[in-house]
Amino acid sequence: MNRTFLQYVTALKMEEAKLRLRHSRSRVQDVARDLGYEDVVYFAKLFRRATGQSPSEYKNGLRMNG
């Protein structure tokens, strides 16, 4: 699978976001900013594209299932 450098970096950031949402009490806004996204809406769009869920849905789903 060929990916651009930007796609590769974005995929790494989304994996890091999943880890942070799973293992910390950080707010979605804080995770986004820590990963270099000043626009939380854009971060959420990328996260949904990568996971099929919004960051909040992902975090809340983990809480309900864990």
TrEMBL record:
InterPro entries cross-referenced by the UniProt entry: Homeodomain-like_sf, HTH_AraC, HTH_AraC-typ_CS, Tscrpt_reg_AraC-type_HTH
Keyword flag Transcription: yes
SUPFAM superfamilies from the UniProt entry: Homeodomain-like (SSF46689)
UniProt domain HTH araC/xylS-type: residue ranges: 1-61
PROSITE patterns, per database record: HTH_ARAC_FAMILY_1 (PS00041), HTH_ARAC_FAMILY_2 (PS01124)
Annotated GO MF terms: DNA-binding transcription factor activity; sequence-specific DNA binding
Alphabetized UniProt keyword annotations: DNA-binding, Transcription, Transcription regulation
Superkingdom as given in the UniProt entry: Bacteria
Keyword DNA-binding among UniProt keywords: yes
Protein name, per record: Helix-turn-helix transcriptional regulator
Organism this protein belongs to: Cohnella rhizosphaerae
Phylogenetic classification of the source organism: Bacteria, Bacillati, Bacillota, Bacilli, Bacillales
